[in-house]
Amino acid sequence: MARRRKSDCPIHFALRIFGDAWSLLVIRDLMFKERGSYTDFLRAEEGIATNVLAERLARLEGQGIIVKGAGRYRLTRKGIDLVPVVLEIIAWSARYDPDTAAPRAFVRRLRGDKQGLTAEIRARLEEERRRRS
Question: The whole model's pTM is what?
Answer without folding.
Answer: 0.86
